[in-house]
Design brief:
alpha+beta, six-stranded antiparallel β-sheet, 11% strand, elongated, transmembrane helix, MFS_trans_sf, transmembrane, membrane
Length: 335
């Protein structure tokens, strides 16, 4: 016999009902405004537009194509040949772009890494020790230097300033000037906003339109600098190739008809034999390029004073033989 009181059983299941363990919880305090979602700043809206309208793959391909085109244009321009007549393909331009973009990309990456490091060190160790008056002077100096750099870069468009003698200098001046101006404007607006409220100070100090103008100007400056460098590389590669003509294979052109390749150093041989496959042979040539079913040939003694370039169509009526630089083509032989 038990004297304790047992809980009643339910009529249907015969089981003892469990006591509810739910305890009333206090109401949660409203979320602090500081934990709210970040505001939609002008820079974030501009980044979204760029991602939507300019796919990174398409943009990079366009940049490579442009730089390769500039490289090819100035390379063949040194020989007096218009590159559009050669029928270069997109692959040709993309391959040439590697020659002109390697150093600028490596240098840009290194400079950007140095900029980020210096900026962090300046904000953490130098800026806290500068008083408000010195900060204002520093912002004014940054604005003045920035505008001076931008003006110096733009001035080279209409006046032959010494900056034209330095490859890429005008474009880099524009990029550096814009960076200094933006830094000074952001610092000034942040200082003004911090005196009003912390919420305003945390917002982006540049609008979407201002960020768009900054990106356009910086992009133009970078295009300008790298295109200038690409043109210089193209011309430099042409000069190097002419200087190494003696180390390149020699070319002999065979034809069943006279091609009239008249230039200093080019020798025409005639084969009167009726059973000869080709009746004319031309020695003293160097092959520069084969593209678009045509050959670009230069005399081995070519120079810009009295040099000539030959475009020879690729066909069964012509044949090209190659010889090592020190080899002598067979005499009086037309194949």
């Amino acid at each position: 016999m038990g004297s304790g009181i047992r809980p009643a059983r339910t009529a249907r299941s015969g089981r003892t009902p469990r006591l509810s363990t739910n305890v009333a919880r206090p109401a949660q305090p409203p979320r602090s405004p500081t934990t709210a979602a970040p505001a939609d700043t002008g820079l974030s809206r501009l980044s979204l537009m760029i991602r939507n309208f300019a796919a990174p793959t398409t943009l990079i391909t366009a940049l490579l194509f442009f730089f390769g085109w500039s490289h090819a244009y100035w390379f063949f321009d040194y020989f007096g040949v218009n590159s559009t007549t050669l029928g270069l393909t997109t692959q040709d331009y993309l391959m040439r772009s590697q020659d002109s973009l390697f150093i600028p990309l490596a240098a840009s990456a290194c400079l950007f890494a140095v900029y980020l490091f210096c900026r962090r060190m300046f904000r953490e160790h130098v800026l806290p020790q500068i008083g408000p008056e010195n900060r204002r002077r520093l912002m004014i100096a940054s604005m003045v230097v920035g505008f001076a750099l931008v003006a110096a870069g733009l001035l080279t468009i209409v006046i032959a300033t010494p900056l034209r003698m330095i490859v890429g200098a005008p474009g880099l001046c524009m990029v550096g000037g814009i960076a200094l101006i933006v830094s000074a404007v952001r610092s000034r607006r942040t200082a003004q906003a911090s005196t009003e409220s912390a919420e305003v100070a945390s917002a982006d100090v540049l609008t979407a339109g201002e960020w768009g103008a900054v990106f356009v100007l910086v992009g133009v400056g970078l295009f300008w600098a790298v295109a200038d460098y690409s043109a210089a590389v193209g011309t430099g590669r042409a000069i190097e190739q002419v200087e190494t003509f003696s180390e390149q294979p020699s070319v002999s052109v065979y034809s069943d008809k006279s091609l009239g390749l008249a230039a200093p150093g080019v020798v025409e041989l005639t084969c009167p034999a009726p059973d000869a496959a080709y009746h004319f042979r031309y020695d003293g040539l160097k092959l520069i390029l084969q593209s678009g079913n045509q050959y670009l040939l230069l005399p081995a003694s070519w120079n810009r004073t009295h040099g000539a370039a030959f475009l020879l169509p690729r066909s069964d009526a012509n044949r090209i033989d190659f010889f090592p630089p020190e080899a002598i083509p067979p005499a009086h032989s037309c194949g």
